[in-house]
Amino acid sequence: MFSLSDAQRLRQELPPSGLSSNDNNSLIQNYLTHYGLADLAKTYSYGMGRFHSQNFELVCQSFSVPSTSRPPSATVFILHGYFDHTGNYSHLIKHCLDLHCNVVVFDLPGHGLSSGKPASIDSFDQYLQAFHDCIHFVEAQQLGSTKPWHLIGQSTGGAIAVDALLNSGQSQKFDKTILLAPLLRPKSWLLSKLQIKVLSLFTKSIARGFSNNSHDQNFLNFLRQEDSLQCTRLPIAWVEAMSAYIKKTESANSSQKQLEIIQGSDDGTVNWQHNLSKLKQLFPAANTTMIEGAKHHMANESPHYRDQVFARISEIISK
Predict the structure, then answer these.
(1) Is the peptide bond before 148 cis (omega within 30 degrees of 0)?
(2) In angstroms, rounded to a whole number, what is the distance separating the alpha carbons of residues 12 and 192?
(3) In what order do the strands lie in the sheet with 74-79?
(4) What whole-number distance in Å separates Cα of residue 127 and Cα of residue 247?
């Protein structure tokens, strides 16, 4: 088992600049083993580093393809979803490596190995700034020397990617941007917003309900029973920050930037019908691929659905 205190110790032990390998660090080894990343870290060139962003200490991980046979073809940045962290993304990391792409992924503030109030944020602008600072860290460590760069965002990670496309010059550094079940409005948003306004008068957080957002029961069981880095409370502050993000994004000017969206038809987490319509208005050049029957957590769906998601990612990246 890898505990929350282990995560805090590991972050504090990382150098303030540069990368640590798993060779002589038992905490990194325990982390990689617990989250099914150990084999990837052995097969590929692996590093874990810490960088500063605003008032946060954020943890970034990189997996690089050996250039002994042929050089890597691209670098893929992964933005994880709400309540998630890098340790939950072994399938997607492996798939990108199988495509001969280097991978960079970091834990958002309040998630995983990174610091911050658990699963909370004052503004989604802080997520965007964290992404900017991750890019600066990657460039300083020469982790992104392999071009082109591609960006994949799951759910809230997709919201950050959209924010970057609409409001950041950094988005120009990315060739392909792929959104997996992107967050804009969650399901039943108008009702939820009213409920949150009432609850905010009495509490700062509510109990998190672990949703059945994947057909992979082993994944769902792991989150509930074996992942100590999962937050069990939903902070009201995060919902208020999301509300401000929705208002800002839905009133934004449209963009001619390319965007690829992969969405499941059985997604009960976000209001995907509204979101796809609004994203098409914001990005007229966007392409959408529907995965019939897939639920929300596309990076961790059962193999039947995940294989379809990954096949589409392969098509997009190989274009």
Answers:
(1) yes
(2) 37
(3) 19-20, 45-53, 56-64, 101-106, 74-79, 149-154, 174-180, 260-264, 287-291
(4) 16
Q: Look up residue 274 and give its two tokens.
A: 């509204």
Mean pLDDT of the chain: 95
* Number of domains into which the chain is organized: 1
pTM: 0.97
188: pLDDT strictly greater than 90: no
Reply yes or no on whether the pLDDT at 319 is more than 90: no
Closest CA to 252 of 129, 128, 165: 165
Q: Give CA–CA dist 278/274, Å, rounded.
A: 6
CATH of the domain at 226: 3.40.50.1820
Structural domain range at position 159: 4-318
Question: Amino acid identity of 303?
Answer: P
> What digits encode the pLDDT tens for the residues 19-63?
887 777 899 999 999 999 999 999 999 999 999 999 999 999 999
Q: What percent of the chain has pLDDT over 70?
A: 100
